[in-house]
Design brief:
Blueprint: H1 2-26, H2 29-58, E1 62-63, H3 70-85, E2 92-96, E3 103-106, E4 114-118, H4 119-124, H5 127-142, H6 145-170, H7 179-199, H8 203-216, H9 220-233, H10 270-282
Length: 293
């Protein structure tokens, strides 16, 4: 059911992107419609095949190989062990050169997946906590949340450019430009952003926490990691050019600035996630917790 639901969400996102481009293009007549059709189709292709690579490149991720030693080698071994416990293919593993502690997963399917963690997270997390975090990310991969998140982040990044495009064209040197174009374009981009935010359900984090705890064998590591990551993330901003990708991370990153992209707050409160994990730990009957939204 989770796979089917995420496939439907992905189709809606990609269809919505095309509709948004056509709506904006219609403001500029027939030529605008043709341009919107071509550009919208191209963006859908890029979002489907390259959204994971875009996410990794945005975070400047460096791929870890199985031959490496030290912290990188330990990270690879942790992911390898956990993915075997979860009966999953081995994802690509990346380390991102950011001091803001965080982690994320991406990829359109388990066989095309990647997990990434920042240098800041590797510095503060114990081995047990790292296991909990990586298990959470593998749960996202197994539940196919990563395709929806990666495509949503790519599309949301495009929406920001659409809004800026509308302002630039609306406020350009051509005095005959209809000022309603500027307003209409920005409104459409803002509505599109809100739709994407609604598409990425907060319940997926509770589910990934629950399933990740099962993969790791205990919720204790993840619980401790969430407390650390939340505390540090409130003090250390993440240098992320696309704040819409915040939905991909295990905790909501602290980002500066003020723009349409800041509409994307897709994580439930950490306190509620911890409460759900305590219920997982205390649940001796195997009944899954009631996920909050």
């Amino acid at each position: 059911m989770s796979r089917f639901t995420n496939n439907v969400k992905t189709a809606l996102l990609m269809g919505g992107l095309m509709g948004l481009f056509l709506a904006v293009g219609s403001m500029y007549g027939q030529n605008g419609m043709i341009f919107a059709l071509i550009f919208g189709g191209l963006m859908n292709i890029i979002a489907w095949f390259f959204s994971d690579k875009i996410a990794i490149a945005t975070m400047q991720g460096r791929e870890v190989t199985p031959e490496e030693g030290g912290v990188a080698g330990a990270l690879y071994q942790v992911v390898d062990e956990l993915r075997q416990r979860a009966n999953m293919p081995m994802p690509r593993v990346y380390i991102c050169p950011h001091q803001a502690p965080n982690a994320f997963a991406t990829g359109r399917s388990p066989s095309k997946a990647a997990v990434a963690v920042t240098e800041g997270a590797l510095e503060i997390l114990s081995l047990e906590e790292l296991r909990g975090v990586m298990a959470h990310e593998l749960a996202h991969v197994k539940n196919r949340d990563t395709l929806t998140s990666a495509i949503a982040a790519t599309i949301a990044g495009v929406l920001a450019y659409i809004a800026q495009w509308g302002f630039l064209l609306g406020g350009g040197r051509d005095r005959e430009t209809n000022p309603l174009v500027m307003i209409g374009t920005f409104i459409l981009a803002a509505v599109g952003a809100a739709v994407i935010k609604a598409t990425i359900s907060r319940s997926r984090e509770y589910i990934a926490d629950h399933d990740g705890a099962e993969i790791a064998g205990s919720p204790r590591g993840l619980m401790s990691a969430l407390v650390k990551l939340e505390n540090y993330s409130q003090r250390i901003p993440l240098n992320n050019p696309n704040p819409a990708a915040n939905s991909m991370f295990i905790v909501e990153p602290l980002t500066g600035g003020s723009s349409i992209m800041n509409l994307f707050a897709s994580h439930p409160p950490t306190e509620k996630r911890l409460a759900a994990l305590r219920q997982v730990e205390a649940d001796l009957k195997g009944v899954a917790p009631q996920y909050m939204t």
